[in-house]
Amino acid sequence: MNILVIAAECTPFAKVGGLADVVSALAKEWRAMGHFVRIVIPKYGTISTDQWNIKPTQTILSVPIGWWHEYTRLWRGQLPGTEVPVYFLESRDYFDRAGIYGDPEGFPDNDRRFLFLSRAGLEVASAIDFVPDIVHAHDWHTALTLAFLKSHYRHHPRFIHTAGVFTIHNIAFQGQSDPYRILPLAGFPVENFYGSWFEHDGAVNAMKTGIMFADKITTVSPTYAREIRWTSAGFGMQPYLNIRGADFLGILNGADYSEWNPETDPHIARTYAIERLYEKDANKQALLEESVPPHDRALEIPILGMVSRLTAQKGIELLLGCIEQFVRAGAVRFAILGSGDERYERALRRLGRHYPSRVLVYTGYDASLSHQLIASTDYLLMPSLFEPCGLTQIYALRYGTVPIVRSTGGLADTVAEYDPTSGSGTGFLFGEYSVAAFARTIERALQYYRHPVHWDRIRRNGMQQDFSATKSAQQYINVFRWALEKIGGTVLA
Ligand code: ADP
Ligand code: GLC
C-alpha cells in the first residue's frame, strides 16, 4: 500500500508530544510490513539538518493559496534506521522560526501555517511521483488535507483512488479560525459557510472539517473514542462523531520498543532486563548522584517520577496539591521533567528550591533525560484530567516503573489495577479528579514498595505487557483497507 502521511510532528526531527512518536513508529512498522510510506512535515527552524542528514532537493513546489501560488523548497531525509523518506517543507514565512506551535498561546498565524502544510502535503505527491492509496492526516493541523482531497483534488489523476484517514490525537485542540480569512485562502466559498462541514460555533473548525471529510476517522484509544463521542470530553465534537459513528473507531497507540527498551537504551546509565531487574537501581543511583547532595542519597526512598508537558490536561494541579504533604512526611522523592505553562514551571521550580533533595525538577525539553527518568524512578505519575492515549505510561511499564494514573482515556486501556490476591495488574488507578483521590492512590501504591514479592510481581507484570506499534500498525492497515473499500478503490501495491 502507498501511504502519504502529513503531520505537524515526527520523532526525532520535531516533537512536542506523543503525536511525533506515533507518526514515526507507525511509519517504521508499515515499512517493515512492506508498505511504501512517505512522510511530510514542515522544516521548522529548530530542526537540525546536519544532525539528521536532511538535504535540499532541486524541487520547488508551487502551492495554490487563495488566487495565487506560494512556493516551498522540498528537503529530504529519512527516518533514522529505516528507508522511510521524510520530506520537509521549507518556508521562511511559515516555519523558519523557533518553536513548532508557539505554545502556550500559539502563533497568531497558526491557521495559515497549517493550511499551507495541509495543501502543500498533497502537492508533494506529484513532486515525488507518488500515487497514494491512503492520505493519513493527524490532528487539526493537517485536517484540512481531507477537505482538499475530497474537493480540489478529487479528480486529480494522482488521487482518484486515494482514501483519506484522519487520526485524532487530542480533540481539545480544534484549530478554530476566521472563515473570512481562511476559506478564501483555502479556495472554498465563504457564502456557503454557515451550516457547512467547516463550521462550528461560527468559526472554521479544522477538527470538525477532518471528521466530516475523512473516509475513516480514528482516535488513539478505545476508551477515548467512547469518551469523546458520548461525553463532554468531546469538546463539542460529539454530534459530528456520532454522525460519522460508523466510520469512527479507537486504535490504541503502540510504542516503538526499538527506542524504548531498557535492555538496549543508550541514554540510560545501566541497561537492564526483566531477569536482571535489580540492575535498574544503578540508574536510580546515577540520578541521585547527579541531582542530590551526598548525605541524602538513600536508595530505599521511592522516587515518584513524571515526564510531561506541563498543561492543565496532565493534572499538574493534582500533583501540586499533594507534593508537599508527601515530602514533609519524608517518605518519598519526586523527580519531574516537564515544560509548558509558565505558572506550573514556576510552582515546580519553587518546590525544587525548597526541597532540593526531595523534589528534583528539570524544566525544559530533554529527550535523553526523559529516558533516564523513566528508567531511574520507581513510579510514574500521570494524574491526567483527560488522556487520549498517553505513551509515557506505556514506556514506564516496559522499564519496570509502576504507573499511578487516573482512569481516563488510554490510561484506562493500558494500566490495570494491581490485585494483591491474584497477583495480577500493572499499576494503580483512581477515578475522581481530586487531590484527595490522587494522594490516596499514591499511598496505596507505596504500600507495596517494601513488599518484595508484590513489588517484584507488579513490575514484572508491567514489563511483560506488549503495547508495540506492530499491533497498532496492523490495525491501521485494516482501517485503510476499509477506507479503500468504501470509496471503491483497490490497493495497487
Ligand atoms: P502528550 O502527547 O499528550 O504530551 P504522551 O504521553 O502521549 O503525551 O507523549 C508524551 C511524549 O513526550 C513522551 O514521549 C514523553 O517522553 C515526551 N515528553 C514529554 N515532556 C517531555 C520533556 N519535557 N522532555 C522530553 N520529553 C518529553
Ligand atoms: C496527544 C495526547 C496523548 C497521546 C498522543 C499520541 O498528544 O495528548 O494522550 O498519547 O497524542 O497519540
Question: Can you describe what's shown?
Answer:
The structure is a single chain. Helices cover 36% and strands 20% of the residues. The chain has two domains: 2-254 and 470-487, Glycogen Phosphorylase B (Rossmann fold); 274-466, Rossmann fold, CATH 3.40.50.2000. The strands form three sheets. It has a nine-stranded mixed β-sheet, with helices on both faces. It has a six-stranded parallel β-sheet with strand order 15-14-13-16-17-18, with helices on both faces. The model has no long low-confidence stretch (mean pLDDT 97). It has helices spanning 18-32, 110-127, 144-150, 179-186, 206-213, 222-230, 238-243, 280-291, 316-329, 342-354, 367-376, 392-398, 409-414, 435-447, 452-463, 469-486, and strands at residues 2-6, 36-42, 55-65, 68-78, 85-90, 134-138, 163-168, 176-177, 199-200, 203-205, 216-219, 248-250, 303-310, 333-340, 359-363, 379-382, 402-406, 428-430. Strand 14 (333-340), helix 10 (342-354) and strand 15 form a beta-alpha-beta unit. With 493 residues, the protein is an alpha/beta fold. It is built from 16 helices and 18 strands. Adenosine-5'-diphosphate (ADP) binds at residues 17-19, 21, 307-309, 337-339, 365-367, 370, 389-392. Alpha-D-glucopyranose is lined by residues 17-19, 22, 169-170, 220, 253, 387-391, 410.
